[in-house]
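Write out a record, fold above all:
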Amino acid sequence: MRKILNTILVIGSILFASCENYTEEERLIPIIGETDLTTPITKQQSEQAILVEDFTGWNCPNCPGGTEVLETEMGKYGERLVVSAVHTGSFARPSSENNNLDFRTPYGDELKQTFNITSYPAILINRQATAITSIGDWAAKIAEKLASTSHNFNISLGAEILEGKNILVSTKIDVLSAINSELSLTLYVTESGIEGIQNVASEHQLYTFKHVLRENPLKDMPLAASFKQGDVIEKNYLITGSDKWVKENCAVVVMITDNATGEVLQVNEIEL
């Protein structure tokens, strides 16, 4: 009996000592991903929006022309059109000519591979299977998609920068129509107002980059397998930030995707 008691005391001492190795601050380090932390919802949504992901690079001479088209369309449609610039491929490789500015991300490279992006500029609209490479078609394709996409969800958002660099995002999803599909949420950060060098019609010029996809996305966070009209889903997430970003120039893009098809069903963004 004495041996058993001694063994218990030794184990308890070891466990207590191991707990003492962690400071109170370390015990409170938030886990990246879904969290119980919340922030107030400040960005409501009441209309169907679409996502345009623009595959580009600083050394792509034709890409600024595509960017101009998208800026015009954003002015036309406002919050119904969410744009992110995905810098990937050979045109995005850093060089001394652009002060080694590197906007590439593993997630951007993954999207390039998944959707077989081989020509630049190219856009994906709501991540449908085929990229659109003719800039002259972009405006019509955007209008067509806005007119044809079913409005089944609203995503309302809140976001704040916590002490340090992490970003807390609260989401409220209102279900407007019954859906029997397994859906997920993807969140990522974009940054605007970045000064650098861009190849514009084969001439390197000072340029302001906007809506640049940044690293550390939260991908395919599960929602549910079926949804009833009137359902409300509230979830909160922590995204890893970076000291390289100017947080005041950043936005968080949040999209609902269909797990079976990969298509984006609704999207919203909120500035930090």
Q: What stands out?
A: The chain has one domain: 32-271.
